[in-house]
Write a sequence for this structure.
């Protein structure tokens, strides 16, 4: 169903004078899912398109639930990206059974990469959210074959932390981790992270 010109005028009015971020927040609130679909445009996920074969890829593994292809901008030769065929914006949102399967496949792909690429090491890397360096809108696992001194860097400067701060942090995490098996899949904080990812995309309000 098309969004009527009257409704578009109404939406435009609602976001008038707001900053870009405020506009996007407002739109998230006032638009129905149907309207979002139409106004945000049909932003097809490239990884879903790879999954359906609409985008060509160099496939290295496939089963019913997941697919692994060569990264087109590899960190090293043999850099593989592994992802679920079902669209999940964040790895934390992947169903437990699929996440378990995905890690088993990732682990076995590492073995395959050691053998086939004569790699000396591998990294399994997941960027969970834009703040963590996730550039794709589809959750994925990077599997990177490594050599000594290959110039691939995963680095951070260790920070100093007091005993008290560590104690407090450990308690904070422990408290919630206790009930990990009954943990809800998508608490509000995760929805917020995903919302940010979505609203970063261009609006297509005419
Ligand atoms: Zn997708």
């Amino acid at each position: 169903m098309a969004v009527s010109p009257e409704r578009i005028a109404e939406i435009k009015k609602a976001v008038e004078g707001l900053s870009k971020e405020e506009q996007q927040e407002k739109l998230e609130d006032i638009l129905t899912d149907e309207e979002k679909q139409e106004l945000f445009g049909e932003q097809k996920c490239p990884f879903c398109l790879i999954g359906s074969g609409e985008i060509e890829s160099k496939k290295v593994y496939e089963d019913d639930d997941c697919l692994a292809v060569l990264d087109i901008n590899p960190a090293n030769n043999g850099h593989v990206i592994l992802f679920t065929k079902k669209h999940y914006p964040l790895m934390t949102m992947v169903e437990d059974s699929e996440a378990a399967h995905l890690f088993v496949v990732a682990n076995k792909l590492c073995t395959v990469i050691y053998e086939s690429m004569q790699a000396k090491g591998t990294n399994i890397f997941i960027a969970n959210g834009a703040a963590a360096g996730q550039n794709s809108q589809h959750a994925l696992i990077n599997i990177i074959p490594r050599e000594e001194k290959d110039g691939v860097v995963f680095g951070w400067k260790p920070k100093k932390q007091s005993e008290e701060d560590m104690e407090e942090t450990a308690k904070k995490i422990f408290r919630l981790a206790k009930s990990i098996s009954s943990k809800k899949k998508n608490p509000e904080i995760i929805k917020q992270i995903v919302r940010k990812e979505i609203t970063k995309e261009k609006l297509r309000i005419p």
Remarks:
- The beta strands are 59-62, 66-70, 80-84, 121-125, 141-146.
- Residues 202-206 have pLDDT under 50 and may be disordered.
- The pocket of zinc ion is lined by residues 45, 47-48, 87, 138 (CB under 6 Å).
- The longest strand covers residues 141-146.
